[in-house]
């Protein structure tokens, strides 16, 4: 169900890399098991194990894969487009996704009440999406920063997919993001990375 793991699967698919998929059930708390904490002491997925290399943050994993496997580069060579990619990627990974992480939602449920989860997530995601529309409006082509898929698309697609699906977000005011979401849904590398396509997904899986 993790949007952060979804990012990494898209990159592995784009680069044509074979990998062994090891499921970690977040709803069962498997990310807090002693074995998993040895891989990532903060108890978050994804983790990439590549020989003796253990990496536990999606951005670090993506940049590592990009250097090691340069086919289908994730960052554009053009300096300005590269900078926009990094800016928007970081806006999603630090300004949107952490605000609706499972641990945050659990905390709201316990300290404030279950009924406050959806309004909380909708408020923060809408604020983030409004910013993304503004940040990307002068850069988007078919995808977020032109007509090729880059790093920012690997962050955007899972964010859109997960929040629209889980929180029934009304996207009518986010016209650019809606168009991009539609474009991503046509790409095999993105389709095959969907949470609901993974071997351990329950039939009603959301991300
Ligand atoms: N910055 C990290 C964030 C990782 C993260 O928040 N992972 C979430 C799933 S997308 C998680 O494992 N949540 C489990 C929890 O909150 O207990 C990354 O990009 O990999």
TrEMBL record:
GO terms for cellular component: cytoplasm. GO terms for molecular function: glutathione transferase activity; maleylacetoacetate isomerase activity. Its EC number is 2.5.1.18. This is glutathione transferase. Residues 78-203 form the GST C-terminal domain. Residues 1-73 form the GST N-terminal domain. Belongs to the GST superfamily. Zeta family. GO terms for biological process: glutathione metabolic process; L-phenylalanine catabolic process; toxin catabolic process. Keywords: Transferase. Pfam families: GST_N_2. It catalyses: RX + glutathione = an S-substituted glutathione + a halide anion + H(+). CDD domains: GST_C_Zeta, GST_N_Zeta. PROSITE patterns: GST_CTER, GST_NTER. It comes from the Eukaryota.
